[in-house]
Amino acid sequence: MNSSLLNYTLQLADNALIIGHRNSEWCGHGPILEQDIAISNIALDYIGQARNFYQYAAKLTGNGATEDSLAYLRDAIDYKNCLLTELPNGDWAQTTLRQFFFSTYQYFLYQQLQQSTDQQLAAIAEKAFKEVTYHLRWSSEWVIRLGDGTEESRGRMLHAIDELWSFTGELFEGDSYEQQAVNDGYGVVLQDIRNSWMKKVATVFEEATLPIPAGNIWMQSCGKKGIHTEHLGFILAEMQFLQRAYPGAEW
Amino acid sequence: MEIPDQHNNRQKTAAQIEKEVWAILENVADPEVPVLSVVDLGVVRNVQALATQSEENWKIVVSYTPTYTGCPAMDTMKMNMRLALIQAGYKNVDLTQVLSPAWTTDWMTEAGKDKLKAYGIAPPQYKQLVCTPDSFQQEEAIPCPRCNSYHTRLVSQFGSTACKALYQCNDCKEPFDYFKCH
Questions:
Q1: Largest CA distance in chain B
Q2: Is B1 inside a domain boundary?
Q3: I need a labelling partner for A210 at 20 to 30 A (CA). Which of A189, B60, B66, B150 fits?
């Protein structure tokens, strides 16, 4: 078994599952009906992406793992998602800004991943890329609408930047399995993604009249290594309870 | 239900069997947009009939592609395709998912587009204008499926299902779904 390929695939799956789970928490609580539907749709796209990556990862393990066992029976230390995805939703500004940061990252990541030498990763990326394009457009419009909106909405967007900015560095900080993935030709060079990401964020922030934080801010990391904030444990407790208490339950 | 005997199929060629299978699948509906079949949608990519030595005679391989990765209707479509084939006497069925090339509304049949419009859902535009990441771009002019007016507006890119956007007609005021280009 190629453990770097497995970890690389799991990281893609975990990111999608956890941010999808966070977005799903808005279902029934969105600010207006159309936006409730929008964010629930985005959550659904993520669950779909996660399933594709988990199914592939399950095959790679070769030990009888399934998409469900990977999602429901691994503990926080085994999850490789970036910390940004597991942070609580906060208000609408914080949720849409996180979505914008993450969708911009995924947009360029999947764009590159389509050229991966691993055919399955490339195929999933090709499909997901189309969906992420909608997420990026939707979230960037919210950043602009709120940033360049009222005093209240602008204040909330500024607060969201303060809360989230230090979690964006980790997106581009490759762990050892990501470096191995690049060496072996199926992974994406994160430095290239970072440059495209900065450019897109600068464009949207300018339109939103929002300031880009200074470049030397301390960045949080280690989610990719399995060292998480306390928030992930609560997500897993909710998500995994049923399968832990009643193993193999189906309905 | 009585399952037809496949005895007569022995004399048929693979091409004849494949044609029959396509015809069967044309009657398997998308559970969320029931006027469309899985063939109209472009979800069925390929059908292959393979001769076997067993009493089933033919193994049917159906290649399908999901519309959106998270489409919850996909599992139902798979099950219904299998059931329809079993009912027609094809018990040895293999459903294979293909992800690449990724599904596009370009694959929707013309008949499918007409059925959508009659059902009250605006079909995808002939000229594919797929979503780009640019914010606040000019919207596609989508004709209202009720009064055909182009004087409509986008309410949200995300609708009741992953494949649809919400629009409203400014003339007849009808809110409607648009099966968006993808």
A1: 63
A2: no
A3: A189
Give residue for tokens 């939103």.
A208
- The residue segments making up the domain with residue B146 are 107-179
- For residue A60, tell me if it sits in a domain: yes
Mark whether B114 and B47 lie in a shared domain: no
- Integer Cα distance of B10 and B79 in angstroms: 26
3-state DSSP assignment of residue B166: strand
Residue B164 phi, psi dihedral angles, 5° rounding = -125, 150
Is A100 inside any structural domain? Answer: yes
Inside any domain, residue B127: yes
Domain end position, chosen among B72, B97, B122: B97
What are the phi and psi torsion angles at A237 (to 5°)?
-60, -45
* Nearest partner of B104 among B180, B22, B161, judged by Cα: B180
CA–CA separation, B124 vs B128, rounded Å?
A: 8
Whether A251 maps to a domain, the answer reads no
- Across the strands, what pairs with B152? B169
Q: CA of B74: which chain A residue's CA is closest? A: A48
User: Is it the case that residue A159 has pLDDT exceeding 80?
Assistant: yes
Maximum Cα interatomic distance, chain A, rounded to a whole number of Å: 55
Q: Are B47 and B28 in contact (CB under 8 A)?
A: no
For A80-102, what is each residue's pLDDT tens digit? 999 999 999 999 999 999 999 99
ipTM over 0.85: yes
| pTM for the model | 0.93
B155 and B81 within one domain: no
Q: How many domains does chain A have?
A: 1
Is residue B91 located within the same domain as residue B134?
no
CB contacts < 8 A, A to B, total 92
Read off the pLDDT of each residue in A107-113 and give the average, rounded to a whole number: 98
pLDDT greater than 70 at residue B6: no
Domain match, B16 and B78 both: yes
Give the integer Cα–Cα distance in Å for B58 and A104. 48
A46: chain B residues, CB-CB within 8 Å: 70
Q: Give the tens place of pLDDT for each residue, A126-135.
A: 999 999 999 9
Q: How many structural domains are present in chain B? A: 2
Pairwise CA distance, residues A110 & A116, whole Å: 10
Pairing of the two strands B164-169 and B152-156: antiparallel
- CB < 8 Å to A134, chain B: 131, 157-158
Please indicate whether, in this complex, the C-beta atoms of A123 and B99 are within 8 angstroms of each other.
yes
